Amino acid sequence: MSNFLPPLHEGHAPITLQQLFGEALHALDAWEGERAEPAVIYEDRLVPISAVFENMRACTDILPRTMAEIIADKVVGSPPAASSPDALTFADAAQTAITIIEQHRLYGESAIASFLDHHRVDKRRPA
């Protein structure tokens, strides 16, 4: 599949791509069971969420708080206030999302739960 998503410009994504990323992130968050990878719609085409995340791997823009909270909750499993969502970029979130998708493809839902449990941060324990 050729990539028809808008390109980044010197590490910055156009607003349409940022919005599509948000839709893909919500689809990832809602992905359950052994269903096929979710897709989002861009210019009347279905785009797998992995393609959106791959396209944003080099985006240096700061992730909006609402999107950062989804990533923080998915990986850290703690209240968003306990994490530092202000420091996340779209690239950081894209890499995390890609890892979750790869785990889902390879091992299914139970592996994702194990992966997320392994990467949870115990806020009571010093780093």
Strands of the widest sheet, in order across it, are: 1-2
Number of E-state strands: 2
Global mean pLDDT: 80
Number of DSSP helices? 5
> Can you tell me the residue ranges where pLDDT is under 50 for at least 5 consecutive residues?
77-83
Q: What is the gyration radius calculated from CA atoms?
A: 15 Å
Distance between the termini: 43 Å
> What helical percentage do the residues reach?
40-55%
**Element pattern in H and E:** HEEHHHH
What is the 3D form? globular
Beta-strand portion reads: 5-15%
> What's the main sheet like?
2 strands, antiparallel
Descriptors for this entry?
127 residues; 2 strands; globular
Structure, explained:
- The structure is a single chain.
- With 127 residues, the chain is mainly α.
- It has one domain.
- Helix content is 49%, strand content 6%.
- Strands 1-2 form a two-stranded antiparallel ribbon.
- Strand 1 and strand 2 form a beta hairpin.
- The longest helix has 18 residues.
- About 6% of the residues have low confidence.
